[in-house]
Specification:
With about 130 residues, the chain is of the alpha/beta class. It is about 60% helix and about 10% strand. The chain has two helices and five strands, in the order ββαβββα. A three-stranded parallel beta sheet has the order 1-3-5. A two-stranded parallel ribbon has the order 2-4. The longest helix is centred in the middle third of the chain and has 74 residues. The N and C termini lie far apart (about 115 Å).
């Protein structure tokens, strides 16, 4: 139940209402208070005023500020990790280029070697080697 009526005195007596309701959350944001604060909070009754809500808001703001500092730290660390990874990607590209050039040179050398091997076979096809 939320009460916002501006009266000269309390509108409700919590002890009277409690006879009919077993569990209550009452929020009284009127000034002066519309609900008699009698006992304020028991196991089944919770009464919050403007001052209580202000305290809750301040506590939540403090928690959010602390979480924001923690989030900034996480973002900074992950940003550093990402930049290191990004720089390494340039090295990966250089390594790929180097391997590609090495593969190309190897292929050229294999082609030359195969050509020499075929040419040598053709030259020696009519000759026989005499053994000792």
């Amino acid at each position: 139940m939320m009460v916002t009526i501006k009266l000269s005195g309390p509108l409700l007596d919590v002890n009277v209402v409690e006879k009919y309701l077993h569990f209550m959350v009452l929020v009284d944001i009127a000034v002066p208070r519309d609900i008699e604060p009698g006992g304020r909070q028991t196991g089944q009754r919770y009464l919050y005023s403007v001052d209580d809500l202000h305290a809750i808001i301040q506590s939540n703001l403090a928690q959010r500020k602390a979480a924001a500092v923690q989030a900034e730290s996480i973002v900074q660390q992950e940003s550093t990790n990402f930049m290191a990874w990004l720089r390494s990607q340039g090295a990966v590209e250089t390594i790929r280029d180097y391997r590609s050039q090495a593969d190309q040179i190897r292929a050229e050398m294999e082609a030359k070697s195969a050509g020499r091997h075929r040419a040598g076979r053709k030259r020696g096809a009519g000759y026989s080697r005499a053994g000792p």
